[in-house]
Design brief:
Elements: H1 2-14, E1 24-31, H2 35-39, E2 57-62, E3 65-73, E4 78-94, E5 103-120, E6 126-141, E7 152-166, E8 170-179, E9 184-192
Antiparallel strand pairs: 1-3, 1-9, 2-4, 3-4, 4-5, 5-6, 6-7, 7-8, 8-9
Amino acid sequence: MRKLLVSLILLCLALPNLGAQGRHEINLSFGAVSGEFTRLDVSNDNYNDLCGLYEPHYNVSDGPVLTLDYHFKLNSVVHLGAEFDYSNLSGYTWYRIGGQQRRQFRTDVFTLMPQVKLRIPGAAHFRLYGKAAAGVQFVSTNLAERKGETPVRFAWDITPIGFEWGGNFVYGMFETCVGNVIMGARLGIGFRF
């Protein structure tokens, strides 16, 4: 899937401008380092602490964060829209002391957030922007240690810098992200109509 997405993004660079910019945008992207992965303590730092002896430790495999977002162009700078994200984690928990068995787990995270995107006016084939989103996140997990946590929580995502390249109809995109949805970067493809 990554090869296909990278191929589509590279194709965007070769496409000519297919007409005037539309008012609607749909973007599909994948990102690295989900916010749920950063919530779990997967470091080796607490293994020798006294409290770390009795706390659960995690061996986690993190999948990509898949994002689908929509924007409506109010003017040349402000775009309003919504974002839907999905990510999952899998792995097992283990304890240093206590004789508890290793337990397999899988966590699915769904996020829905309204957002605002601010575009910096510039060249037709290279556009800079920033965006902010806040909404709700639903976490589905089978981790017994985390049953006290609520499955619905506040979610936020800030893109301090992002850019689009390519044509006005089909384009590639790259974003740096900070938040509890994703802590890393996104790469994707967008369609404007």
